[in-house]
Every structure is written in C-alpha cells, then in structure tokens.
Design brief:
Elements lengths: L10 H5 L15 E7 L5 E7 L1 H4 L4 E5 L1 H4 L31 E2 L5 E7 L2 H8 L3 E6 L25 E7 L11 E12 L8 E6 L5 E5 L4 H12 L6 E4 L15 H13 L3 E4 L2 H7 L3 E12 L5 E11 L9 H7 L10 E8 L14 H19 L3 H8 L8 E2 L5 E2 L4 H12 L1 H14 L3 E11 L6 E10 L4 E5 L8 H13 L6 E4 L17 H28 L6 E4 L2 E4 L2 E7 H6 L5 E10 L6 E11 L5 E11 L6 H20 L30 E6 L16 H18 L13 H8 L1
Parallel strand pairs: 1-12, 10-11, 14-15, 20-21, 27-28
Antiparallel strand pairs: 1-5, 2-4, 2-6, 3-5, 7-15, 8-13, 9-10, 9-12, 13-14, 16-17, 18-26, 19-20, 19-25, 22-23, 23-24, 26-27
Helix pairs in contact: 5-6, 8-9, 9-17, 13-14, 16-17
Amino acid sequence: MFGVPALRSEDPRFLRGEGSYLDNIEIPRSLHTAFVRAIMPHAKLSGVDVSAALASPGVVGAYVATDLDLAPLPPSGTVEGGPDGELEGLFSREPLARDTVRFVGEIVAVVVAETFSQAVDAAEMVGVDYEELPVVIDVEAALAEGAPLLWPGFGSNVAHSFDSVSDGDPLEDADVVVRGRFVNQRVAPTPMETNGVAVVPEGDGSYTVWVSTQVPFDVRDDLAQTLGVGRDRVRAIAPDVGGAFGTKLQIYAEYHAVAAIAARLGRPVRWQETRSESMVSLTHGRAQVQTVELGARRDGTLVGLRADILADMGAYPIGAFMPGTTQEMLCGVYLIPRVVSTGQSVVTNTTPVAPYRGAGRPEAAALIERAMDMLAAELEMDPVVLRRRNFIRLNEFPHTTVTGVTYDTGDYERSLDEALRLAGYEALRAEQATRRARGDEVCLGIGVATYVEITAFGGREFAAVEVGADGLATVSVGTTPAGQGHETAFAQLASASLGIPFDDVTVVHSDTGLVARGEGSWGSRSLQIGGSSVLEQAEAVVEKGREVAAAMLEVDAADVERVEGGFSVLGAPDRNVRWSEVAGASDGGALRAEGRFRQRGSTFPFGAHVAVVEVDTATGEVRLLRHVAVDDCGRILNPALVRGQQYGGLAQGIAQALFEEVLYDESGNPVTSTLATYQMPSAADLPPLEASNTETPTDLNPLGVKGIGESATIGSTPAVQNAVVDALSHLGVRHIDLPLTPERIWRALD
C-alpha cells in the first residue's frame, strides 16, 4: 500500500484537454452575469441607476441590493464589543453593498444577460453616485488615533484581539536580545481557474449548483438558506477545480446573488470571474506586520520570545482567526521556555484577507526563522548550530509548547541533517568564504529554515466503499480535490485493502447528490482523515466479504483469508471465490460499508529547507541557484503525489519570497490588479527543485500520515529570505522585508 509511486489516474484527461472545469459545463438556456464593482475604496452610495443597463440588448435583469434583499454574510470568528464577543450587524458584509462600499471591487449591482459580452457591456452603463469617505489602507495607520473608521458606530478598526502571557518577563534571563519588525506581505493566491458558480433551477423546486470550490457541502447548505429550500433540494457539484489554495473555502457574495437571480428568473444563471476581477474580489492572503524580540544566553540557548502580530483583514474580517493560529505556532521547532504574544485583526479599505496555503502557519515560521538567523548573527554563531542547540528532541514527543499546542511526533534534527547533506552545506560555506575574501560583486548566500506546521485540526470525514457483483469497487469520499490527486490516492488505498486492481476502483467525490456528507478539503486533511475513513470502510467490506465467502466455502470465517481478487481458504488456495461471486451472493448483490473517521487531534508535519542564492550588489538582482526541501509528512502513500505537492508548494513559497506583492496606492486603488503588474515567477525563474523526505509516522490515524499540501510553502519562504540576507550580511545588511525585489535589495545596500 505504501511507497508506490503510481501515476495519477486524473492526468490523462487533463493532458488531453478533457478536464471538466466550471466554464466547460454546458448548461442550456443559461444566462450570464456581470457584477458592477466599486471603483472607490470607501464611499457612501447615494444612488445606483440600472435603467440604462436594463434597456441594453440581451439584458433580462439588473439588480441592486434592495432588489435581491440578501441576508448579510457574517464574519468568520468573533468580533469584540458585544455579548460573547459577538456584535450584531457589525463587520458583516452585504452581498450587494447597500449604503457603503469599503474596498475597490465590492459589488454594487449585477446585470444578467443572454451572453457574457452583453452583460459586460450593460454593466458599464450602470451609474453609481459615490460620496467619498476617508480611506485607510495601511494596517498600522488603521490603529492610529483619528484614523478613518470603516464602522464608525463600532469606534475602532480592531475586529479581534488576543494575548498569550507566560509567567514573568520572557526576556529577563537573556544575555542577548535581538529585535525585528517583519512584514509578511499581502499576496493574491491567483489559482489557474478563477472563481465561479452556476445555479440551475430544475423545475421541481430543486436546484443544481456547479461551483469551483473546496467545500461543496458548505455551498449547498448556505445556498439552500438563500433559496429558502431544504438542503435536500440543492445539489452542489464541484467539477475539476483548477487550484484553490484556501481561497475557495469562502461562500462568496456572488454565489448568493447568482442563486437568488436564478430563483427569480427561473432560468440557469452563471458567473465566471475574469482575471482582473479575481485580483480584487477573490480573497488575499498573509498580510501581517510582526514585531519580535528573541532572547538567549551567550551559548545560544533560547530563554524567551515576545511577539506582536498585526493582521490586516481587509474590509471584512472573515479570516480573523488566522493570527491566533500564528500565535499558536510561534515556538516553531524550538524549546522556548516563555512566550508572550499579542495580536490584533484590523480592518482596512482593501480586499478581504482569508486562508491561503498555510493560513497563519507560514507567517509564524517566517517570524521565528528570521529571528533565529538574526540571533545567530548577533552571537556570531552558525545558524545551523543555533538551531540544533534549541530543537525539541526526539524523546520529548508528544510535546506541548508554552503556547498550548501539542505536537504529535517529530525528528527535526534528522530532516535538517538530510537537507544539509543534499545541499553540501559545508562546501557552500567554504565557497562563500572564498568569494568574500576575493571581494566578489556577486555574493553567495545560504539560507536555512526549519519548520513545523499544524494540519487536519482534528475533525472527521465520511467515506463509503462498495463492491458490486461485477467485482468493481466504488469509493465515495467527502473531500474535494483541487489538483492534489485524491482519485489516485483513495483508489490506491481501496485497491490495496480490498485486493482489487487499481483500475477497477472508481472514486466519487465533490457531488452532494452522490456523496452523503463531507467536510471538504482544507488544512492538508484529506489523506489523513478522508483516507483513513476510506481505509476503515474498505476493511469493513473485507470483513463482510469474509463472512459471505466462509458460507460459500463451507468453512469457518476464521479460516478464510483475503487474497488478490477475492477470498480463499487458509492452506488451500485452490478453494477460493472471486469478489464478484461474493458480492453477487450478498444481500442486494453488493457489499457496502460507510461511516466517518474521526481523528482525535491535529498532526504536525515538519521539515528543513536550504536555499542557495546569488545577489548582484550592483543591481540588487537575486538568482536562486538551488533549493533543497526535506519535508516530513509521516508515512508516504504515493511518493509521486507527495513530490507534486512539494514542487507546487515550493513554487508558491519562493514566489512570495522573491516576487509577489499586492500593492495599493495612497488613495486605496489597487495597482497590481492584473498579471501584467502582479509579479509571478515563470518556470524559467526557478531552478530545478530538489525535494526529499523523511518519514516520522503519527499514531493519530491508522495510516500514520500527516499533511503535505502546505509544508513546502511554509519552509521555503524563510529559507530564501534568510539566504538573501545571508548573502549581504558581511556588508552590514541585517534584514530585508519580503518580497526581496532588486529595488528593495539595492536600497538596503545603498
């Protein structure tokens, strides 16, 4: 079952251009929508005139907030100031803005037409009267006295705050304290497939919803409320999803509007986001400003950490929980006796921020790993030596950190040793010393980062396994893939457990009409929870089959063993029955088991990365020469799938380090709203990526697996940042904020 690098069964259809994404779904008589979006970051709406749009060719409807009268979308998590931390009506978002717009891209109207081009043309004719309001786009400025308030009645731009205090001053025993202010910049997740939804009234009071999402069951539940029908009257289907990265966890305002319009008109209505829309309306990620103090003794032993986390939530705090996750993971892989941390989730006149590949954990890793490198420089100690000195040791697991998180298993030194070996660390340091002695203008930098992250967050997942009279198996599972290879992984599990050929297993997912229930895909949970559920149900089917086979073979069930293709009598392999015979002899002509696996806690993958860069001191240009990643996700089912997740994660983590940043001008207008202005790497900008693994199984699930979807993203960004600073450290450079653009580096040197 484990370690088999089976090729992805999904790939042939994708390689042949036969994938079925939302925009490929043929829906007869479907209408198309175009949303009219705010062009001002903060303004009162004094009027929205859709009359000219209604008179345009092909238009069948044009709506403002009062026409659709949709319920507000609540913030995720709590806000402060009311009973139990809740404040009725504040920080909630109207799907179509009624009185106030709070960011460029917020919806003020929607036009529906026979074709997409007609809808777009008509949307341009909608007149909107704005009364400009003061704007705040900087998260620190939003806290200043007299700052413009997004909700004046609330009296503050702070939606949520927290603190975690150890006893006493965490730095009182420190011989050395390093201090830093780090910016973990705002980024746009930019999935290859943009957001979209199609709602089809079926004529009997039910609806079919096609949607590009990670959570079709959540979409079903929320849209059922909007449509005023029971959940059993809404079928949500996520076809092939071209990338999600956490940004497709939200039930977007557009979904509710499209559903309401479809119900009103009695015709299918669809919406597919344009790329420029996506850059301002799909949720953004990261966006933290961190202040840190890290203290140690002269020998490098850590004594304490003080951190302040300021999280920019954009206009609506749907991701207010994320800085709390950052706080939980502040210790990283290190034994830190005391941690004092504070944090605030703050609203600004920008696109909302929500989970993006790692959701709070990359920010924690970036904070502690930069601080460790700064401490190593202050102590004039090799950063590898400093890390080794403070690792949580192998015999100390499970380990509960002072921030209250219990790590299940870990072997941090082993992954670091492997990364250093693969990179040739000592030789790289020798080459660096030689170059510095020569005074080379192009400097060599070596960056090391070790990390631990949290995956699954406990929880449960549904699966069903059935073997029919044809001997074929069907697996139904409640997770929803967005390119990870779930169909391959779950078919491997069922094939190995049942003894049925891989090609004879069909995996069904992402359809609330075919799968009984599901929690979706997020937090790198799919294999460890969904896969464990598949395994449990497959084993249950085997036990049912054993009982039937025993009756057929006229022996005791204890004397029947499962063999490839069916069952046989122990010690008499010629006495056997095939799966098709066993299933055919069962009640209903099939063997089936279904249920939900519940994992009792979170798992904590970890790893070590080494980045090697060259920095041209004349121009500030960075060239990434090598990147070595050793990620530990527990037992490995399919090395090919793991490698794919590592490569994708590395590309995104490196991109944050060197290229990507969402920017606004001083008036709150986005200046990176197209791929012409938002910098992303191409394949030519990245070196061959060197990915490897160690395996430290967990005991929290029967597979022994942990998550891998986010790991490489978390480890790669601080490794590259550390490498660039390391390249210039002998010139007095102590820190450079992300992204490490040539201009930013040149200015740091200047």
